[in-house]
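Quick one:
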Amino acid sequence: MPALVIVAHGSHLNPGSHDPTFAHADTVRAAGAFDEVREAFWKEEPSFREVLRTVESEEVYVVPLFVSEGYFTEEVIPRELRLEDWDVSLWDSDGTDADTATLTAADVDKTVHYCGPVGTHPAMSDVIVQRAESVTEDPDVGEGFGLAVVGHGTNRNENSAKAIEYHAERVREMNRFDEVNALFMDEEPEVDDVTDYFESEDVVVVPLFVADGYHTQEDIPEDMGLTDDYREGYEVPTEVGGHRIWYAGAVGTEPLMADVLLERAADAGADVDEALDIVRKRTATPAAGD
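Output:
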C-alpha cells in the first residue's frame, strides 16, 4: 500500500502553525487509506529533505498543504524531495489547475505522485462555504449574507491572487450568498476596506490561509477595524461601519480540509474512495457545491 506525505510551510515563530497539518493527517490516518501518513515542513522538523527517507513504501503521494501554485510548490518542494526531471510544465497549469506529475525521487528510488496544492483544488470552495457555516453556526447561511474570500496577495506571484479569485467565482456561481468578493492584504481590493465592497448588512470573512498566525489573528482583524489591538480580542460578529462582520479565521483549520487532501491523492490515482466516505462523515456537512 502506498504512503501519503503532507508537506506544509510550518513556522519557527508560531508554534501552532503546524496544528492543522497534524490534525488533518490524523484524520486521514484514521481512515486507513495509506500504510503510512507523514507530515513534513519547510520551517520545522521533520523537513522536506528528510521525509522520504522515513517512508518505507515504494510509492508515495505528496500533497502540498499550500494555498497557491508558486515558489514553494513549483521550486522548493520538488528540489528538496529531489524529484528527477521535475519541470513545472508537467502540471500544465494556468496557475489554478495543477493536477499531478509522477516522478522518481532520486536518492531513495521511490515513485512519487507530486500533486497540486490543496488551495487550488475545486473542493476548497466547499471548505470555504463550510467555514462560513461554522462561524455563523448556521448550516443554511447564505441568503442576506455577503462572503469575502481573503488572500495575502503579492505582486511577486500572480498565482496568489488567482487562487482567491478562482474560489470567489466558484462560490459566487453557487448562488448561495447575496454577494461574493475576493479581497487581499497586500493588493487591491484590500480587506481594510471590506465594508466598501458589500451592500449586505452581514458579511462573512474567510481568509484562504492554511493556518492561523500573525496575518489572520493580528493583521486582518485590526485592518478590518474589528479591534484596535488584537490582544484585546473582538466579538463575532463585530459591527463595523453599519455591517456585521463574521470573521472566520484561517480556512485551513476547518476539519473538511482532510477531504481535500484525499481528493488530491484520488486525482493522482490513489484508491481512497472508502477513506473519502469515512472522512466526509467525520468532517460533517455535505459538500456545499453538491
